Amino acid sequence: MSRRLLVGVIGAGSIDVAGAALAEEIGRRLAESGAVLVCGGLGGVMAAACRGAAGAGGETIGLLPGSDADSANNDVSIALPTGLGHARNVMIAQVSRVLIAVEGEYGTLSEIAIGLKLGKPVVVFGRWADLTGVHRVETAAEAVELALRLAVESRPADLNLS
Amino acid sequence: MSRRLLVGVIGAGSIDVAGAALAEEIGRRLAESGAVLVCGGLGGVMAAACRGAAGAGGETIGLLPGSDADSANNDVSIALPTGLGHARNVMIAQVSRVLIAVEGEYGTLSEIAIGLKLGKPVVVFGRWADLTGVHRVETAAEAVELALRLAVESRPADLNLS
Amino acid sequence: MSRRLLVGVIGAGSIDVAGAALAEEIGRRLAESGAVLVCGGLGGVMAAACRGAAGAGGETIGLLPGSDADSANNDVSIALPTGLGHARNVMIAQVSRVLIAVEGEYGTLSEIAIGLKLGKPVVVFGRWADLTGVHRVETAAEAVELALRLAVESRPADLNLS
Amino acid sequence: MSRRLLVGVIGAGSIDVAGAALAEEIGRRLAESGAVLVCGGLGGVMAAACRGAAGAGGETIGLLPGSDADSANNDVSIALPTGLGHARNVMIAQVSRVLIAVEGEYGTLSEIAIGLKLGKPVVVFGRWADLTGVHRVETAAEAVELALRLAVESRPADLNLS
User: Fold this and answer.
1) What is the mean pLDDT of residues D23-36?
2) Inter-chain CB proximity D106 and C114 less than 8 Å
3) Looking at beta carbons, which residues of chain B come within 8 Å of A86?
4) C-beta of residue B23 within 8 angstroms of C-beta of residue B48
5) Measuring CA to CA, which residue among A82, A1, A92, A80 is closest to residue D76?
6) ipTM of the complex, rounded to two decimals
7) Mutation for B interface: C38, C67, C84, C114, most B CBs within 10 A
8) What is the distance between the alpha carbons of residues A119 and B106, in angstroms, rounded to a whole number?
9) Could you tell me which chain A residue has the CA closest to the CA of B112?
C-alpha cells in the first residue's frame, strides 16, 4: 500500500504578490516532499499553492463548492465538484492530515476551527495566528517542515513521502 | 403564508449553572417572540436553550450530527438526524436567519465563522465576543432583542413573529 | 417531551392536476394526524403537499438545495436552505421516519433508495412502485394510514400524534 | 494543465469471486487508460476495483462515509474521510465524469439515480441494468471502453488520458 499524505492549504481567495509567492513556495515544497495538496480549488492562495505544486509535478486536489469541475483553477489535477457549498470547508479539514493557513477571512477561520475541533495540527501565517491551539510560523520552509513533522508524529506508519 | 423566523443558538456542549440559566432564558424569550429555535440538538447550551423554549411552548429544531433521532435532548421537538457529522455545523449557520453564541469552543467558532461568511448577524456572549464582525451582548434580554431586530432589518417581510 | 413525527413526502417537481390533488390530500391527512411534513420545499408534489398540510394547520419543513430561504414554496413554514445541492436528498431520507413517494424521476428514486438503505419504510404511488422493498398504495388515505402505522411500529414510544 | 479524468466505480460491498474478478479488471483497465478511479473506499466491488487499479500503477480515490482514513481499503491511495455518512454517495456521483456500476444494492441504486439526475453517463452490469437511461454492458473491456468514450464525448478537451 502507498497511502498518500494529504496536506490542506487554506487561505484568502484573493492575495497580493507576496502572499502568492508564499503560497506557491508552500505548494512546491509539499509536492517535492511527495505530499498531495488539498485545497478549495479556486483562486488566491488556492491557485498559487496549486501552481507551485503542479510545477513540481505534484498532485493537487480541489474540493470545489459548486457542481462544475471547470470552475477549478488550471493547476488542480483532481477537481472534485462537491456541490456542497460552504460545507466543502468542513470536507477540507476532514480529509487533510494537517492544515496550513495563509491569511484568509471568515471562510479560512471556519476551516481552522473545524481542523482544531477534529484535533488536526493547524499551521498558520498572519491573520488567525494568535488563535489558541494553532502553530505560528513565518516562512514557507518552516511551515512545510512543521506540517510534515506534525502529520508524521500524529500517524507515523504507512505514509508515502517518497 | 406564515414563514417562521429561525434563530440559531450555538455554544458549549457542557456549561456551568450560570451558563445554563442564560441559555434557558434565551430559549424562553425566543419562544415567547414566536421564533423557532435552531440548535445542534445535544447537551449544554443546546439542551438549556431547548428547555427554555419548550417550557414557553416553542418549537425547537435539533440538527444532529449523527443518524439517530434519539440522540437529541428531550426538549427538541423536531429532531433532524442529518448524519453529516461536523458539516451539520454549517447547516446550523445556513438555515438560521441570525445566530446567538453562548461561550463554546472550536465547534462554536466554526459556526460563528460560517455565519459571518454568509453575512448573517451573529450575537455573542463571552468567548469569541472580540471577533471582528460580531455583536457583543451582556444579557439574555439584550441578545434576543438585538437578534430579532437584526433579523427583521435584514429581511422585514413575511416573518411570523406572532 | 413531545417529539414530533416527521414524514417525508417526495416526488416530481412538476405534476398534473390529479397528482396535485393526491399530494395535497396526503399533506392534509398528515397534518390532521399531527405529523410534520418534510419535503424538498420546491414545486410540484412538494408544493401541493405543503398546501394541503398548511391548510390543515400543520407545520411544513422544506429542505432546500440552495442557500435562499425565499426559494421555498409559499406553504413551507420552516424553510431550511441547506446549500447542500443534491445531498439534501439524502437529508430528506435521513430525517424522515417514513417516506411517501408520489411519482417522480431520478431525484425521487435516489431518495427512495437512500430510505430503503437506511431501513425506513417507503410508501409508493405510481412510478417506482415495483421496486423491491417498497409498500405500494393506491389512495392518499391508504398511504397516510400505512405510513403512520409503519412509523409507529418501527418506533412506538414518545411520538406526538396529537 | 493536465486535469485528470475521474471515473466512479460503484457496487456491492461484498461480492463473489466472479464479481471481484470483474471489478478488478475494470480497475486495471481504467488505470491503464490514465483515468483516476473514484469509489466509496471500502470492501467488495470497491476493494477489487482499487486492487486492479493500484496493481496497474493508478491513483485511487476513496470517498469514505466516516471520519477515519484508516477505514479505507489497502489499495486506496487517496483516502478522503468525508464524515458525511450516506451523503458521500452523492459526492461520488458529483465528482465522477462517468459511473460504472457492478451489481450492488440500494446504496448503489442511489448513486446511479443521482448520476442520472446529474446527466452523467452510467454504465451498468447486472442488477439495475434495466433502469431507463443507463448503458448496459457485459464485459469489463466493454464497460471501460464505453465509459471513456462517453466521458470524452461529453467533455472532449483537456482530459489527460495519458
Assistant:
1) 98
2) yes
3) 90, 93-94, 114, 117-118
4) yes
5) A1
6) 0.94
7) C84
8) 10
9) A110
Q: Which residue of C has its CA nearest to A87?
A: C84
Q: Are B75 and B54 in contact (CB under 8 A)?
A: yes
Which residue of chain A comes nearest to C65, CA vs CA? A84
Task: Map residue B115 onto helix, strand or coil.
Answer: helix
Residue C88 sits in a domain whose CATH number is 3.40.50.450
pLDDT in tens, C28-84: 999 999 999 999 999 999 999 999 999 999 999 999 999 999 999 999 999 999 999
- Supply the range of the domain harboring residue B18: 3-153
Give the C-alpha distances (Å, rounded to integers) separating D48 from C53, D6, D14: 48, 17, 10
In a domain, B162, yes or no: no
In a domain, A55, yes or no: yes
Residue D5 carries which DSSP code?
P
Interchain proximity C94–D109, CB inside 8 Å: no
Short-list B154, B148, B144, B145, CA closest to B119:
B154
Interface of B with C (CB under 8 A): 1-4, 6, 36, 54, 59, 61, 67, 69, 72, 74-84, 90-91, 94-95, 97, 118, 160
Question: Which long-range contacts does A120-127 make (Cβ < 8 Å, 24+ apart)?
Answer: A120/A93, A120/A96, A120/A154, A121/A147, A121/A150, A121/A151, A121/A154, A122/A98, A123/A98, A123/A99, A123/A147, A123/A150, A124/A100, A125/A22, A125/A100, A125/A101, A126/A102, A127/A103
Q: How many domains does chain B have?
A: 1
Position C84 in a domain: yes
Which amino acid, A97?
R
Q: Over 60: is that where the pLDDT of A121 sits?
A: yes
Rg (CA), chain B: 14
What is the structure's pLDDT at D2?
A: 83
Residue type, A8: G
Nearest to B114 among A86, A91, A117 (CB): A86
DSSP state of A58: -
**Chain C neighbors of D84, CB-CB under 8 A:** 87
With contacts defined as CB-CB under 8 Å, which chain B residues touch D83? Answer: 84-87
Asked if residue B39 belongs to a domain, the reply is yes
Q: Do C110 and D117 touch (CB under 8 A)?
A: yes
